[in-house]
Amino acid sequence: MDFAPDATASKHADLMRDFLEDCVYPAEPVLRREVAQTPDVWSLRPVVGLLRDDARERGLWNLFLPGEHGDGGRGLTTLQYAPVAELSGRSPQLAPVAMNCAAPDSGNMELLHEFGTPAQRERWLAPLLAGSIRSAFCMTEPDVASSDAAGLATRIRRDGDSYVVTGRKWWSTGAMNPDAALLVVMGTTDPQAARHRRQSMILVPRDTPGVRVVRPLSVFGYDDRDHGGHAEVVFEDARVPVENLVRGEGDGFAIAQARLGPGRVHHCMRALGMAERAMDLMGARARQRVAFGRPLAAQGVVREWLAESRWTIEALRLLVLKTAWLMDTVGNRAAMTEIQAIKVAVPGAVQQILDRAMQLFGAAGLDDDEPLAAMFAAARALRLADGPDEVHRASLGAAEARRTATPDEADALAP
Amino acid sequence: MDFAPDATASKHADLMRDFLEDCVYPAEPVLRREVAQTPDVWSLRPVVGLLRDDARERGLWNLFLPGEHGDGGRGLTTLQYAPVAELSGRSPQLAPVAMNCAAPDSGNMELLHEFGTPAQRERWLAPLLAGSIRSAFCMTEPDVASSDAAGLATRIRRDGDSYVVTGRKWWSTGAMNPDAALLVVMGTTDPQAARHRRQSMILVPRDTPGVRVVRPLSVFGYDDRDHGGHAEVVFEDARVPVENLVRGEGDGFAIAQARLGPGRVHHCMRALGMAERAMDLMGARARQRVAFGRPLAAQGVVREWLAESRWTIEALRLLVLKTAWLMDTVGNRAAMTEIQAIKVAVPGAVQQILDRAMQLFGAAGLDDDEPLAAMFAAARALRLADGPDEVHRASLGAAEARRTATPDEADALAP
Amino acid sequence: MDFAPDATASKHADLMRDFLEDCVYPAEPVLRREVAQTPDVWSLRPVVGLLRDDARERGLWNLFLPGEHGDGGRGLTTLQYAPVAELSGRSPQLAPVAMNCAAPDSGNMELLHEFGTPAQRERWLAPLLAGSIRSAFCMTEPDVASSDAAGLATRIRRDGDSYVVTGRKWWSTGAMNPDAALLVVMGTTDPQAARHRRQSMILVPRDTPGVRVVRPLSVFGYDDRDHGGHAEVVFEDARVPVENLVRGEGDGFAIAQARLGPGRVHHCMRALGMAERAMDLMGARARQRVAFGRPLAAQGVVREWLAESRWTIEALRLLVLKTAWLMDTVGNRAAMTEIQAIKVAVPGAVQQILDRAMQLFGAAGLDDDEPLAAMFAAARALRLADGPDEVHRASLGAAEARRTATPDEADALAP
Amino acid sequence: MDFAPDATASKHADLMRDFLEDCVYPAEPVLRREVAQTPDVWSLRPVVGLLRDDARERGLWNLFLPGEHGDGGRGLTTLQYAPVAELSGRSPQLAPVAMNCAAPDSGNMELLHEFGTPAQRERWLAPLLAGSIRSAFCMTEPDVASSDAAGLATRIRRDGDSYVVTGRKWWSTGAMNPDAALLVVMGTTDPQAARHRRQSMILVPRDTPGVRVVRPLSVFGYDDRDHGGHAEVVFEDARVPVENLVRGEGDGFAIAQARLGPGRVHHCMRALGMAERAMDLMGARARQRVAFGRPLAAQGVVREWLAESRWTIEALRLLVLKTAWLMDTVGNRAAMTEIQAIKVAVPGAVQQILDRAMQLFGAAGLDDDEPLAAMFAAARALRLADGPDEVHRASLGAAEARRTATPDEADALAP
């Protein structure tokens, strides 16, 4: 057992720290100004384009994708990527997208990389890896518990050489962005099949007739319009060639699971970065703000917040890193329990840390002069993304109950 | 001891329930549309004007102001007003303002009613009670702990027959509204005086030269632009006649304390109304939403949320009502400890209930199709308004430590 | 609505305060000594006998029993009894038993008072009211979820003019005391009947052949041997006359419910008294203990503990009092939801307050020089007595989900 | 970074698991019987002696002591010892003492090993390592905040060739055991010295005239009489030769800090073992106990308990292991912040897990048929041992506030 990061991880973390200091933090107020000046635009703003050039030059492009892939990606392991991903979370609106590591593109690229045909990869993966287009992932539906994939109401019907997609999705992150040329859509091909064989995944170009982006949704009062928002999207008999199916009919659930695993881990890493940014801000505030004649840092309650927040981050980071290590050594599937655990544990803890940070900043913590309220909203949303916490807790609890069960007892326990 | 509300309270609660059902709830989507159509407007929207007419007709106008005041107010006691105020919190953006009971106007009216000269009351109180103008309260400053009034940097200097106001305020709620004709400003007249005699309160017309509304602030992305937002306001040698001082120099702290007491209680009452609205929504969602083959209401974790939320509301409501009863029977000053207790206890609990409600609604709880995220933001802000929770907790803890102290011990304990 | 106690309640609370100061607190160290000297005795110690004489003289005897009953009881309402019961909880090992208001005797007396035949009342109720015997209540079984009364394994079979009781009970509080002459036993008479008609309640004299007290049980190392402990009791064909049945066959569940209601409320009242005792102790400790040059009461974290504990007690006491008022005005059955709510809410909160108190006392809080650890154990046990919290939470949550349901929706929701 | 344990750690963990299954668990009921039969004995019971022989034979003796020491110890690193120590916590009354790794002996042996003179080591360390005597550590005093070592009232005065010890200690764990031949006592030699140079550490044989063991103390209702209890000890001019001083005058604080570091880590490891034992018990109970027709493991609330408990243990274990790794690689002093963090984080979390386990077991969880209540008491006590949580939290919070401070800011922040 060894808790020291290896040289590759350390080097990339150093690169990332420099990138934040040199490029990303200075770009934050610029983004705010650009958004204020173009309130109706959903595309990336100019400052992001400049940052993307910087990231490419510094070797911080597409690092999310493990292995060699001939496009500037560095072939990091998940464990090596972890510190980079965490650091990118310190500026969640800018750094991930600048590095072409932002959801939902990163997940879609993984999906195409792992499951796409050569033709699919050439048409969609190449421009995504190059950053010349963006994409959206359309899974969640308004009328179905998103945790219960078996019930997806969107239909994908075979009709000759085409598939016809019909249904209503929402929370399609990024889809308000007109540059999101690709919609990856999950829907039901065979409602009579076994629960986890009903769904398929299909690639729908944004300009397909019948695709209609209905409206933006917001998270608290944020519509995330600086890079694509969250859309309600209707598919009214949207017809695409059969070649657009990813893998075969019925493979949708398995593909989604494969796609969500790394995505969840990346979310957790970035959430820890948000928490660390909050810790820095809290520390500075606590040292500099005086109330009743003493700096806040001299007050016992503030010290408790700092202490508990610190050890919570340290413990959860180790759990995230161990999960990454498991993914690298035994595979994503064998690491499923750990992935599920951090998926729940991290966002909840980070939300609480951000709540404390906002409290320490007083009214200043509510407004967008500080990044805290926006990061709180992001952490809060993570407790619902990919299924609410409760579904994962129940599943983890069942796994724990089975851990020491006799075979007979285990049979009696549904997952 | 008797826990039954009296006839006056019951009657007004019934009136209020009808008003909500008949007028307010149907107006909620209308307000959303009107705001969407006029995104740059900070005044009240037309639908609010119609609601205000309804409220006047139904005898639900100015009920916040205790005693007889010849303007349609009904002379309710604080205890009788409590159920009305709570019910108004069920639609926090519409009902309080429709009834002319919204902060900061209500607090400013109380202030003028209690401390204003006849001339001040004629010029400002009368149109406020009539609803023909609105107002703002300018106390919080960016560079001073808002809980530490002794440090206010805004100066109010006497110069002949004028006072000259200089300083920077923020979180001046309502001040973005061009109809907020009156700014009630707290500042320092004598920095050498005893801590609580340094401040004075002065009436500054919005159109006074030197008054500059700098920018809006937001709460979790919400700018509350439907009725006046939260402004940063600069006073650059704004000159007003000496007659605009409220009471005498040095009376500012005492006036502020008197103003804040009822305001805090009203905030708590309305916060309970938000929680009750969330309970209704949660109940409906839990009954109607099915996941994994069972309604959410059949799931143990959801039942726990409902149970804990319910008894928490019941217990805290009783504490709020007892506080109101104390204000009516022994006076606001004697009820100070209880006011402080509910000021902290209620918003924190309501925030947690709203967090659960959002979780139950899934992604739908984050967007503004439901009122939950906006109510969460409002409850969260209450934990900072009028001084952060921690200041009040420390003060309450000191009071508790003194409760059973000998006189010598009590002397040794600073408040 | 009126939050002032009436004259009767105030008078009895004053009597009770004097009794505590004059008699009970001074008796606490005496009891400790007497127990240390007679470690193998399970009966009441001499000092308790003296206290019982004092309580009788002061008119503090049998106050738990509402209405007139010609035995020194004063006919208090539940609401009037509340402050007395709370105060008795400040010395939980001594005061309730001194006043003949301790569980399980009080519940057994209520049961006999309400459901007993004249003969049963003469033989058992009279000496219990007089304090010349004690009793135990035998409901909980080792192998059955105590919340699930339908499954009780103890059988009560009719055999001619007798009932024959067979089964194993545990947590029969008081039964180690040889003076507990009466065991009130719940068992199954008809396992085929409807769920809540299977059980009956029967009076079993301790000296009945076949009754065997097996062993004492302990709560966190405490065996409560000063007044009867908690016993495992085996009934091996224990035969009693048919006249010993309380009411009819199948009435056991209803009787148990009727018995448990007031008992739960009394437990809550006393638990608040434990919390208040802890508050006094915490206040004194915080004022007098110095660490790092300042009294603990000057430290922010301690102040937060005191503040949160204080308002929690205040809010929950009001909920308990309102429940008592409902019991007096609409009846125990109509108050069932409120009884269930306080049954869960109060012990959990009191446990947390006691945990803080122990922390404030450091190691001294763990030992029995202070009453904190023993009170903690008692509060902890209350979270399990009469069914674990979770059963009540689930039931309350279902009730809340039904609150706003349409009739159709309500039908679909099992309680 | 590598999360796999090395071969030495794995081998010892395997040995330890076998030892638990083969020897320790079967001995638990034996110990209970032996204690019941000899209630007044404070020495180790016969069954423990047999276990000690087993442990020696299996190579599980004195493993707590790092490095080579020629007495059967294996020279494990702290990181290698961690799994062994954790496993020993699964049977906290038996396993650590059986392996001669129990507090306070282990800490006293470390102290003698690191700071003792050859003569001191020969006289005391050798028999302690051999297990032929036991020892106690006398630091805590009734009248002084135990976290504030500068205030120790016990005096150690030089008088010719002797030191004379005078003072009152309590919570001297193990000192009720007549076989505890050595008392390691901390007291003040020079009250005028700098805060951390006032104290010295001295070896006082139990049979020294003037040493009086006054009485046992209890934790909740447990007096831990099976292996030495917790004593109040008075030193009335107890005179020992000057050679009994450990190191020099004024070195006491530094020695205590050095002694406490590993002790705290070992406590955390064992606490995790208690939690794991509780997890196994909870799993079995949840699978086997049926309420309302379903096993508890099928109920959502129980699953949440299992899930949260599981990931909390996993995350905290990693933090403990990283701390152990730091101790091995950069030294105990450099790992001080991490040691302090786990010292607070682990016992609090384990207490909560044990509370859940007790709740799952119902009344059975309160009694000593299950180990839960006793483990709860032990975990609760850890939140106070070596200074209450709050002192460590404040210190950690100050460290965090300094983490990103400029030098000037850091100077302004007292630790």
Automatic annotation (TrEMBL), chains A, B, C, D:
Keywords, sorted A to Z: FAD, Flavoprotein, Oxidoreductase
InterPro entries: Acyl-CoA_dehydrogenase, Acyl-CoA_Oxase/DH_mid-dom, Acyl-CoA_Oxase/DH_mid-dom_sf, AcylCo_DH-like_C, AcylCo_DH/oxidase_C, AcylCoA_DH/ox_N, AcylCoA_DH/ox_N_sf, AcylCoA_DH/oxidase_NM_dom_sf
Transmembrane segments: none
Stretches assigned to the Acyl-CoA dehydrogenase/oxidase C-terminal domain: 250-398
Domain Acyl-CoA dehydrogenase/oxidase N-terminal residue range list: 15-131
Acyl-CoA oxidase/dehydrogenase middle domain segment(s): 136-237
Top-level taxon of the source organism: Bacteria
Quaternary structure (record): Homodimer.
Family (UniProt): Belongs to the acyl-CoA dehydrogenase family.
Protein name according to UniProt: Acyl-CoA dehydrogenase family protein
Organism annotation: Cellulomonas chengniuliangii
